[in-house]
Each structure stands twice: as structure tokens, then as C-alpha cells.
């Protein structure tokens, strides 16, 4: 009897732009990342972390990848279509995903798209589903905001699949961010999960052996976390907080 070998992540190996796509005049295709029409992103490791300033397209890219993977662009898992996400929330993932092609090895529908801004509606849905099925659920909403985040990561991210996390640090203290990295390390060593993360946190950027990519108006490029604007900015502050703030808060004359 031949023993079946289970493929290891990354499952999603590439994301690229369809060569036949022509609607590049409006958002999100007007973003510098996509406007040339030759966008391609290779996932080379189990954990890929994307950094960059606000407005360059990190969240939009993650939304597009999430929809490409079969998730809702407002957050959730495959087949989960929330009814109580804010209809006012900007959701460009579906538009972008229609122009993207994914290279999988193998294709998997398992995983989750985590968005901090919709966490409570997702948590409410999961808690309610557990109660209706008379199961002992995670009861995410009984925790504080940050503790609920961590409970969610502990419960979901140890499974097999592709996990897309958009700014998971938003409700986490620095100490809790390190706990998140412990969860990532456990999942990574388990060899079942692929992570694609967008963050502003220098702590998360420093996760060992991650593929760290800097997104700017020039596109995506590999970077060492010590060279990111986020790390340099915080290093400057920590070296002399008083002088740093005096300089930054000084009114221009």
C-alpha cells in the first residue's frame, strides 16, 4: 500500500494579474501596485508579512487574495457569508479578485480571512452558531477585545489552510503581540497552515524566517525588518522619547 504524502504549505504559491484584464482606470486598479497590469506576487515561505504606509493598498490586496481563496472580502471562512457586516464598509476585494489568478499546490478551501474591523460580527456569528448546535463554543465575546482576538487565533489558526490576517495587532498590546507570534510559530511547526499578514507592528515584522515584503508606490520588494520605516521610526522614539516628541510636535514657523 502506497502511503499518501500530504503537501505542506505554502499552498497558494503565486498571485498574478490576468493578462486580458482591461479595467485599470478605476480603484483599486489605479493603485500604483496594479496600474501597470503586470502584478505578480510569489509566496516563498509559510509566513508572508506585508508592510507599508497607509493607502498603498495592503488591505485591498489581502481582500483580493481572500476572495480568490473563496472567503468573503469582509472577513470569514470559506462559505461564510455574513449578514451583519457593515454595508458601509469599503469592500474592493471582489472587484480585484476578478482580475487575479492564483497558483496553488494544492488548492485548498480551508482557512480564514481575519479583519480586525469585522471581528465582532464574525465572533457573534460563531458564538451563536455554537449555541444553536448545542455545542460548547469558544464564546469569543465573553473576553476583552484583545483577549478575544487571541482566543480567536488560538482556536482558528492551528488548523490546516490559508490564513489571511489584516492588521491582527490592532487590539493587542506589545506583550500580546508576542503571544500571537507564539501561536504562529506553533502553527508553522505543525506544517499545516500558511499565513499572509499585513501589519504596522515592528514586533510582528520581526517574526523569524518570514518572507517580509515592503509595499510602496513602486510595488513590492523584500526588506529586512530593521530597514522598515516602522522599525526606524520606533527606534528613533525609543532612543530619546523627549527629544523625538519635541521635534515632531514643534510647530513650523
From TrEMBL:
Where does it sit, as one GO cellular component term?
Answer: plasma membrane
**Which Gene Ontology molecular-function terms are recorded?**
ATP binding; ATP hydrolysis activity
Q: What is its main location?
A: membrane
TM regions (residue ranges): none
**AAA+ ATPase domain location, by residue?**
44-219
Q: What subcellular compartments does it reside in?
A: Cell membrane
Q: Which PANTHER family match?
A: IRON(3+)-HYDROXAMATE IMPORT ATP-BINDING PROTEIN FHUC
- What is the protein's given name? ATP-binding protein
Q: What is the lineage of its organism?
A: Bacteria, Pseudomonadati, Pseudomonadota, Alphaproteobacteria, Hyphomicrobiales
Amino acid at each position: 500500500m502506497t502511503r499518501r504524502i500530504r503537501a505542506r504549505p505554502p499552498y497558494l504559491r503565486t498571485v498574478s494579474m490576468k493578462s486580458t484584464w482591461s479595467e485599470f482606470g478605476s480603484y483599486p486598479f489605479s493603485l500604483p501596485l496594479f496600474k501597470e497590469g503586470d502584478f505578480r506576487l510569489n509566496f516563498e515561505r509559510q509566513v508572508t508579512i506585508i508592510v507599508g504606509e497607509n493607502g498603498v493598498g495592503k488591505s485591498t490586496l489581502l481582500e483580493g487574495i481572500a476572495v480568490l481563496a473563496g472567503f468573503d472580502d469582509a472577513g470569514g471562512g470559506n462559505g461564510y457569508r455574513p449578514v451583519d457586516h457593515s454595508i458601509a464598509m469599503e469592500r474592493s476585494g471582489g472587484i480585484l479578485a476578478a482580475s487575479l489568478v492564483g497558483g496553488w499546490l494544492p488548492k485548498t478551501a480551508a482557512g480564514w480571512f481575519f479583519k480586525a474591523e469585522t471581528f465582532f460580527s464574525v465572533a457573534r456569528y460563531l458564538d451563536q452558531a455554537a449555541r444553536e448546535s448545542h455545542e460548547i463554543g469558544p464564546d469569543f465575546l465573553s473576553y476583552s477585545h484583545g483577549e478575544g482576538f487571541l482566543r480567536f487565533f488560538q482556536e482558528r489558526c492551528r488548523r490546516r489552510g490559508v490564513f489571511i490576517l489584516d492588521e491582527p495587532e490592532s487590539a493587542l498590546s506589545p506583550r500580546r503581540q508576542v503571544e500571537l507570534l507564539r501561536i504562529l510559530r506553533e502553527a508553522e511547526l505543525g506544517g499545516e497552515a500558511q499565513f499572509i499578514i499585513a501589519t504596522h507592528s515592528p514586533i510582528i515584522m520581526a517574526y523569524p524566517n518570514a518572507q517580509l515584503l515592503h509595499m510602496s508606490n513602486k510595488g513590492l520588494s523584500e526588506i529586512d525588518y530593521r530597514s522598515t520605516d516602522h522599525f526606524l521610526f520606533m527606534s528613533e522614539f525609543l532612543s530619546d522619547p523627549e527629544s523625538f516628541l519635541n521635534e515632531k510636535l514643534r510647530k513650523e514657523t
